[in-house]
Design brief:
The complex is a heterodimer of chains A (182) and B (423).
Chain A lengths: L9 E7 L2 E6 L4 H10 L5 E9 L39 E8 L7 E8 L4 E3 L8 H12 L2 E3 L36
Parallel strand pairs in A: 2-5, 6-7
Antiparallel strand pairs in A: 1-2, 3-4, 4-5
Chain B lengths: L22 E2 L3 H6 L3 E5 L11 E7 L2 E8 L7 H5 L4 H4 L1 H6 L4 H16 L5 H29 L3 H22 L8 E2 L2 E2 L6 H24 L3 H7 L7 H6 L5 H4 L7 H4 L20 H28 L24 H12 L7 E9 L2 E9 L5 E7 L1 H5 L3 H4 L5 H11 L3 H5 L1
Antiparallel strand pairs in B: 1-4, 2-3, 3-4, 5-6, 7-8, 8-9
Helix pairs in contact in B: 5-6, 6-7, 6-13, 6-17, 7-8, 8-13, 13-17
Classes of the chains: A alpha/beta (182), B alpha+beta (423).
Chain lengths: 182, 423
């Protein structure tokens, strides 16, 4: 059994669905990652991805009939939620899915919370594979990773405006190129 | 054999470039003084397996600098899935990596089931395993055919695509479509297994090992193939782990790691199969891993068939009316069923609040799905951990001291599927 008590900056430890989540102080994320890599043997970073929680819980709660704002019969899923989901501390969560690639494999999720505009240190020195993951996180969510050697867009074009996976990024609002009307 | 017991000595130290681990940058002074030629390889080059673009600095025949540019096939799958109900989303993961469609679908369906906490009938579990392994063979056949084609062994392509076709025939028989089947549902399978499947699949199981022997007969004594793959694209054990490599690339660097064995899901702990590991860390070792994996997959498929034939008449999907569509014939007689059907189709089922990371061993390595639900009928966030996205990060490390012609072999051996890389 792995104990996570010594992880630097550990705020909270939760477990659900057989997975362990360590909420870590964003300012000490590199320290925490170094610790779990060197002391606990998490030598493999499976995934690194942020989640945008803007508007979390505002889909409305309802009984059978509808939301307080009324029900749009044309849209699926407008019945509302059965209960309001638990509030999140800040807007963005950055999730690090680490794996101990050894005879006793364990997975753990490190989670650091950020508000819009806050920066976080890059973990490329800990796991080189974070390079493209952090570039993708910057590209899609606009999260700045301090100390990343090459933080440029990876999936979108270099001159793209906005960060598509943010919840306030419109759908279908992107300019159409070569539309024939120009 | 333990996971990291024998670390083969592929090369001393680390070859991961610094400061950017995924790119080799030519010294600007050298660039100005010497005859360095910068070329664009791709994005429309046929041997980039799609639309990968490599910016390569050439010093004569040798690669002096390289950086990969991706994103040409970015279609915003993750954003789109946030707008769809859970049960409509199942069609998307298949199209991300269009060569290992069924395995991707499996990962997403398992993630939904983990959040729902739903029990899946054992027949569905075994059929999922059976189809996952068929997909692995299908994917490896496509890999083998195209990679050999790029190195000049054109006839391989026709042989592998012939056998790929018979593999897809099995999918067609079960699911009605040859690819992108949407056969796995949250709770089990979409339909029962057709009676004729067993006989045809057994026939296929008999034929397939012979076909693999034939492929090896074509390549293994081919001097050109051996020259172009042996000792090319070296990747050491430590570098492979640091760069997050998984699947055949990791196993070809001497790591005895397979999620099916080390962290079993479905019923992989109940079937017998071996994990091929090769210590050389070169293109040839990756080819060997692919070949052996196909043989092992055939073994798993035939074990699945044995078990499935005993399960004739058993249910193939869970009996949970809040998640699973009611049987078609009930809709004519039962008001309840009609309501359930209507609710699931219009609103979709609600998935309890939570976040899970579910991964499976796809043909390319660890395919992971991270999903967040707020308790509603649509996912709040979906993220795919695509193994080929990670594999391409190793391009720069593998290209140390490589010539431009080796690049084709190396890119092929990393087995990137651009749909999955760019998502």
């Amino acid at each position: 059994m792995t104990t996570y008590e010594g992880v630097p900056g550990l705020v909270e430890m939760t477990g659900s669905h057989g997975e362990t989540t360590l909420v870590v102080d964003a300012a000490r994320i590199v320290e925490a990652c170094m610790f779990i890599r060197d002391e606990l043997g998490f030598n493999f970073l499976s995934d690194l991805t942020p989640t945008d929680y803007l508007g979390w819980g505002s889909r409305g709660v309802s009984g059978y009939i509808g939301t307080p704002a009324g029900r749009d019969m044309h849209g699926p899923g407008t019945q509302g939620l059965a209960r309001v989901p638990d509030a999140k501390p800040k807007r963005f969560a950055v999730n690090y899915h680490a794996l101990r690639l050894a005879d006793d494999p364990v997975r753990v999720r490190l989670q650091a919370w950020l508000d819009d505009g806050e920066e976080i240190d890059s973990v490329v020195p800990v796991w080189p594979t974070a390079d493209w993951f952090e570039r993708e996180a910057w590209d899609m969510f606009g999260i700045v990773f301090r100390g990343h050697p090459n933080l440029v867009r990876i999936l979108m074009e270099d001159d793209w405006e906005g960060h598509p996976l943010r919840k306030d990024y419109p759908i279908g609002g992107e300019p159409v190129r070569f539309s024939g009307e120009e | 054999m333990s996971v990291l017991e024998n670390r083969p000595n592929i090369y001393e130290g680390s070859r991961i470039p610094s400061p950017i681990p995924t790119a080799v940058i030519v010294d600007p002074e050298k660039h100005a003084l010497e005859d360095i030629l910068t070329i664009n390889f791709g994005p429309n080059h046929p041997s980039t397996h799609g639309v990968l673009r490599l910016v390569v600095d050439l010093d004569g025949e040798m690669v002096a600098g390289i950086s990969a540019v991706i994103g040409y096939l970015h279609t915003g799958f993750e954003k789109t899935m946030e707008q769809k109900t859970w049960w409509k989303c199942i069609t998307y993961p298949e199209r991300i990596d269009y060569v290992s469609f069924q395995v991707n679908e499996l990962a997403f369906v398992l993630a939904i089931e983990k959040l729902l906490g739903i029990e899946v009938p054992r027949k569905a579990t075994w059929m999922r395993m059976c189809l996952s392994e068929l997909t692995r063979i299908h994917s490896h056949l496509v890999w083998l055919g195209t990679s050999a084609l790029e190195l000049g062994a054109i006839s391989m392509f026709w042989y592998t695509f012939d056998d790929r076709d018979t593999t897809l025939d099995l999918f067609e028989m079960v699911c009605g479509t040859r690819m992108h089947t949407r056969y796995f549902q949250a709770g089990g399978l979409a339909e029962d297994i057709p009676e004729g499947f067993y006989a045809q699949a057994r026939e296929w199981c008999k034929k397939m090992p012979k076909a693999i022997d034939e492929y090896e007969a074509i390549l293994d004594r081919n001097a050109i193939w051996l020259k172009r793959t042996k000792g090319i694209g070296l990747l050491s054990t430590d570098d492979a782990i640091a760069l997050g490599q998984s699947g055949p690339v990791l196993r070809a660097s001497g790591v005895n790691w397979d999620l099916r064995k080390n962290m079993p899901y479905l019923a992989y702990d109940e079937v017998s199969f071996d994990v091929p590991v090769f210590p050389e860390g070169d293109v040839y070792a990756r080819y060997r891993v692919h070949m052996e994996e196909m043989r092992e997959s055939v073994r798993i498929v035939s074990q699945c068939l044995d078990r499935l034939e005993e399960m004739r008449g058993e249910p193939w999907i869970a009996d949970d009316r809040k998640v699973v569509l009611p049987p078609r014939e009930e809709l004519h007689t039962s008001m309840e069923s009609l309501i359930h059907h209507f609710k699931i189709v219009t609103e979709g089922y609600m998935v309890p609040e939570g976040e899970v990371y579910q991964c499976v061993e796809s043909p390319r390595g660890e395919f992971g799905v991270y999903v967040v639900s707020d308790g509603g009928p649509k996912p709040w966030r979906v993220k795919f951990r695509a193994p080929s996205f990670v594999a391409l990060q190793a391009t720069a490390t593998c290209m140390t001291d490589a010539a431009i012609a080796d690049m084709i072999a190396i890119i092929g051996s990393l087995d990137g599927v651009m749909g999955e890389v760019d998502r």
